[in-house]
Amino acid sequence: MANKTSIKELSLISGSPPAFSEQIHTNKPSSNNREVFKKYIDNIFDKSWFSNNGPMSIELEKRLKQLLEVKHCALTCNGTNAMLCVILALELKGEVILPAFTFVSTAHLLTILGIKPIFCDIDPVTHNLDIAHCYSLVNSNTSAVISTHLWGRPCNIEGLEELCRTRNIKLIFDAAHAFNNTHKGIKIGRHGDAEIFSFHATKSFHCFEGGAITTQNSDLSSKVKKILNFGFAGFDEVKTIGVNAKMSEVSAAMGLSNLSGLEDTRNHSKQVYDIYKKRLANLKGIKLIQYDCNELANYHYVVISFDYKMIGISRNTLLRILHAENIIARRYFYPGVHKLTPYSQERNILPNTDELCKRVVVLPAGSNIAFDTVEKICGIIKFVTSNARELDNILSHD
Ligand SMILES: *Cc1c(COP(=O)(O)O)cnc(C)c1O
Predict the structure, then answer these.
(1) CA angle at residue 184 from 180 to 186, to 5 degrees?
(2) Ligand 1 midpoint to CA 124 (Å)
(3) What is the pLDDT at residue 277?
(4) pLDDT tens digits, 65-104
(5) Which residue among 11, 235, 269, 293 has the highest number of C-beta atoms inside a 10 angstrom radius?
(6) Is the CA virtual torsion 314, 316, 319, 324 positive or negative?
(7) Residue 228 neighbours by CB under 8 Å, 6+ apart
(8) Which ligand 1 atom sits closest to the C-alpha of 200?
């Protein structure tokens, strides 16, 4: 049942049919250019060129360089390997500072490489690295800061650039969320020593799986391009230690076919965001993250901060209710990387991260969700918040 008028109509309470017959995930991958993609696939078979810098990858690299207005772009098999190649190319060692309120992949890479991840707190409003805390963590072992443009909203780029310049350390941006977004009118991709992107199926622009490294530094670019292909500099010449992080032709073809729909994707995601904004704006205790309307943003993430004290029901109870209705809202990046098993031995004091981990809910959004689905989700959230205390009474004892 879509519009709930009584608590008994909630699936979690009464076992009545959920609002949606199929699960609605946070970001269902977009796949609206199937015919274009099929043509590219025919092309790939005709040429029998499946990987190793084939025509699809060359074309995608060229198009991305133009789109992102960067000097250099290197495609990779995913975002994690893009980050690995940059870390290897910059020869990071010792300690690297990064947020704990982000995806776990970079902490894993550092740990595998024998580099110690040092978790830095975030600003409670921007959700991005807290510069003052970052300064306090720098010491003579620090070799870099790796900062995420969380939800696609640019970090304090100038502040981090100054910190890294004055401390003589490297700066990498994890731009996995920030594809085709701008900071002060300039596309994300050219800041710091390098930026990396993820083109995973769930991201705003995708290649099934894929990634890219962008940089303005020619030496770094040529080094990274060797590293992502086993260090090869020619048929029989290996110049450096490397990995296999190449993008395949089929992934590049998916990227090319998705590029043609990029503006539609952005417009749809923005409209989804606007519905949430309109419908949730007046709910006490729910704060929707804002995107700067003077910048380009992909609006891929719709994130609310849920004030359990003000609303009278816990964030987790809200999620249980939504999940029972097949609305698979999520608590990214719970519980924070610093609290995940491999990293929880060290005592990290990150109060803003801990608080946000209790409050954040990521709602179904993006380019592949129907507007009326979003309306229904808003209706259920509204219903839950207006019956919060009663629901909390029933459900908090389960
Ligand atoms: C998705 C993501 C990654 C990892 O990218 P993959 O392409 O899945 O390897 C890294 N960082 C952030 C912030 C991400 O969201």
Answers:
(1) 45
(2) 22
(3) 98
(4) 999 999 999 999 999 999 999 999 999 999 999 999 999 9
(5) 269
(6) negative
(7) 74, 76, 81, 85, 213, 242, 243, 244, 245, 246
(8) 7
Length of the chain: 398
Return the ligand 1 atom nearest residue 202 CA.
1
- Residue (of 397, 366, 381) closest to 319 by Cα position: 381
Among 189, 133, 122, 127, CA closest to 153? 127
Q: How many CA atoms lie within 13 A of 5 on its CB side?
A: 0
Mutate to test the pocket of ligand 1, among 81, 83, 102, 105 (most ligand atoms within 8 A of CB): 105
Q: Which of 103, 197, 203 to mutate to test the pocket of ligand 1 (most atoms within 8 A of CB)?
A: 103
| Ligand 1 midpoint to CA 79 (Å) | 5
Ligand 1 atom with the shortest distance to the CA of 199? 7
Model pTM score: 0.97
Q: Over the stretch 203-232, which tens digit does the pLDDT of each residue have?
A: 999 999 999 999 999 999 999 999 999 999
Q: Which residues line ligand 1 (CB under 6 A)?
A: 78-80, 102-103, 105, 148, 174, 176-177, 198, 200, 211
* Amino acid letter, 3: N
Could you check whether the bond before residue 335 is cis, i.e. omega within 30 degrees of 0?
yes
- 90 CA distance to ligand 1 middle (Å): 20
pLDDT at residue 1, as a whole number? 47
Tell me: pLDDT of 31 over 90: no
Atom of ligand 1 minimally distant from the CA of 82:
9
